[in-house]
Design goal:
The protein is an alpha/beta fold and 250 residues long. It is built from eight helices and seven strands. Helix 3 links the parallel strand 4 and strand 5. It starts with 7 loop residues before the first strand and ends with a helix.
Amino acid sequence: MESRDPWIRTLRGAVPPRARVLFFPHAGGAASFYAPFARRFPEGYDVTAVQYPGRQERFGEPFVTTVEGLADRLVPSLRRWAAEPVPLVLVGHSMGASVAFESVLRLGRDRLTGHCRLVVSGRTAPSAPRELPALDSDQEILDHLAGLGGTDPAIVRSPELMDLFLPVMRNDYQAATRYRPVPDAVVDTPVLCLTGDRDPQVAPEEAAAWKSHTTAGFRLETLTGDHFFLTDHPDTVVRLVAECADAGGR
């Protein structure tokens, strides 16, 4: 896969790769969110992140308005990697976990998941859906984000950044709200679930329910923190993802 693919941003290259790690951003997030994580991986890990349309270097491109649509558009970029005999770990946080899950489901239909692993973070299992609040105004979106610890104060203080940020958030929140996963959908890849012990969006049993969505190995890890707990534990997150890449799990 070539770096000019607009869907994939390279964060740390490795040739030949020992494993590939692909991060999926949360609602309102972008590929650059994962740059601090990429720097912590051991040598040999090829680390990339998905770049959704409408943000950063893809500003001006039309948004994709559904989770399923994001997976549909992204999977053609993943098939070549998935076909290689190199571990491919798809790591998604919050909305990104749903996009990653839907992507693995599609790769499974193509029989391309033999070397894939899935890491879901900060997201309830498809069989334990939680109704997301209908946020009808920009202020409601910002208030909700503040409650999750996910708003950069620099963005709120800058009218110019807010003008760029809010359309992305409106689109992504609508996509997350409309998403209706198949409650009994199952992947044939090992699944690692990461969750925060104080995450208001995910109860412990809702995270543990991911076990019923894989026919391969399952591991649940609870870290201290709220919805964005992973930013408090970058070294631990990287270690767990690397262990997932290295483990067979089947």
